[in-house]
Amino acid sequence: MSSPAAACDSRVVNAMSVDVEDYFHVSVFDGVVPRATWDGLESRVMSNTSRQLDLFDEFSVRSTFFVLGWVAERHPDLVRDIARRGHEVASHGYAHRLIYDQTLPAFRQDIRRAKKLLEDVCGRRVVGYRAPSYSITPRSLWALDVLLEEGYEYDSSIFPIRHDRYGIAVSDRHPYLINRKVGSLLEVPGSTTKLGPFNLPVAGGGYFRILPYWWTKWGIERVNRIESRPAIFYLHPWEIDPDQPRLHAGRLGQFRHYRNLDQTESRLRRLLTDFRFNAVDVVVARALAMAQMDGGVAFPLPYAW
Q1: Nearest CA-CA partner of 134 in 165, 175, 178, 180
Q2: How many angstroms separate the CA atoms of 239 and 22, rounded?
Q3: Cα separation of 8 and 224, whole Å?
Q4: How crowded is residue 207: how many other Cβ atoms within 10 Å of its Cβ?
Q5: Torsions phi, psi of 135, nearest 5?
Q6: Do the beta carbons of residue 188 and residue 284 sit within 8 Å?
Q7: What's the CA gap between 292 and 207, in Å, rounded?
Q8: Residues forming beta bridges with residue 277, ordered by sequence position
Q9: Distance between terminal CA atoms of the chain?
Q10: Which of 44, 94, 123, 164 is 20 to 30 A away from residue 257, measured at CA?
C-alpha cells in the first residue's frame, strides 16, 4: 500500500545520501580527539554502514555514499560493497578537515588523495563531493575552483541556512549550476523549506534526529508537493549507533551529537516508507538536463562578497 506522502506526487524522487565517517571524525570533536589517535580508537563505521546498506536493500533504495578517504584507505572492502550493491560512491575528502581551516594547496591534496583512493578501490569515476560539515562558506568559495580543476562535476557543500559552523543563507535552495572561471559545477544543496523569509532545514543529520519526525515529513512534503522538487537528504553511519563510545565535548556539542541516536533507525524506516529515494547522481542528471533545456547557461553564485 502506498503511503500518503508518496501519493502526494509520485513523480518526485528524492536524493538519499550518507556521509561515511566514524563517530570520532565528527567536527565537534576536533581538538578533543587528535588525529594521531584515530587509528587507536574503536572503529564502528564498517558495521554501521553495513546496517544502512542492508536497510536500503530492504527498501530497494539506491543512495550516494560520500566516503571519507581515511575510511576507504582502511576499509576498502566497505567501499567495494557499496559499489557492488549499486550505490554511487562520492568523496567526502580525505581527512575530515573543515575547508576554511585549510590552505588552498592542502585542500587540493586532500580531495585529490580521496578521489584517487576511491576510484582505485571501487573501479569507477568519482565525480561528486561533499565537504566536512558543509564547510564551503563565503570565506572558502575558492574551493569550487579546486574541485573543478581536480575533476569533480558536482558539489553538495553549500547549505542555504544560517548556522554557527556553515551555511550561506542567500544561496539557491535547489540544485543549480555555478559558473566559475575554470568551468561550471552543479551545486546540490541540502534541503530546506521556506517559511516567510527563512530557510528552515529539513535535510537530515542532526535536524532529523533532534527535531520530531513530523518536521522532516512536513518539510519534504512541502518541497515535493508545493515546489515539485526533490529533497536532498543526508545521514551518517554513526547516527544509527546509540551504543557508540561517548566522547567529551561542550554541552552544545554533546547535545548535537548524541541526541536521539536510539530513534534514528526507526525514523529512517518511516522515511523510506513515506517517500521515494534514489542516489544524488540521478538528481544531478535531471538538473543538468533541465539546464540544457534552458540553453545550458550557467549562472554565477547568487550573491557577491
Answers
A1: 165
A2: 10
A3: 8
A4: 19
A5: -90, 25
A6: yes
A7: 34
A8: 14
A9: 50
A10: 94
Please write down the HEC assignment for all residues of the chain: CCCHHHHHCCCCCEEEEEEECCHHHCHHHCCCCCHHHHHHCCCCHHHHHHHHHHHHHHCCCCCEEEECHHHHHHCHHHHHHHHHCCCEEEECCCCCCCHHHCCHHHHHHHHHHHHHHHHHHHCCCCCEECCHHHCCCHHHCHHHHHHHHCCCCEECCCCCCCCCCCCCCCCCCCCEEEEECCEEEEECCCCEEEECCEEEECCEHHHHHHCCHHHHHHHHHHHHHHCCCCCEEEECHHHHCCCCCCCCCCHHHHHHHHCCHHHHHHHHHHHHHHCCEECHHHHHHHHHHHHHHCCCCCECCCCCC
User: Between 45-58 and 76-84, two packed helices, what is the crossing angle to 10 degrees?
Assistant: 10
User: Which amino acid is located at 197 in the chain?
Assistant: P
Can you give the pTM of this predicted structure? 0.92
| pLDDT of the chain, 305 residues: tens digit per residue | 344 444 444 579 999 999 999 999 999 898 889 999 999 999 999 999 999 999 999 999 999 999 999 999 999 999 999 999 999 999 999 999 999 999 999 999 999 999 999 999 999 999 999 999 999 999 899 999 999 999 999 999 999 887 767 678 888 999 999 999 999 999 999 999 988 888 999 999 999 999 999 999 999 999 999 999 999 999 999 999 999 999 988 888 788 888 989 999 999 999 999 999 999 999 989 888 876 666 544 444 544 43
Strands 183-187 and 176-180: what pairing?
Answer: antiparallel
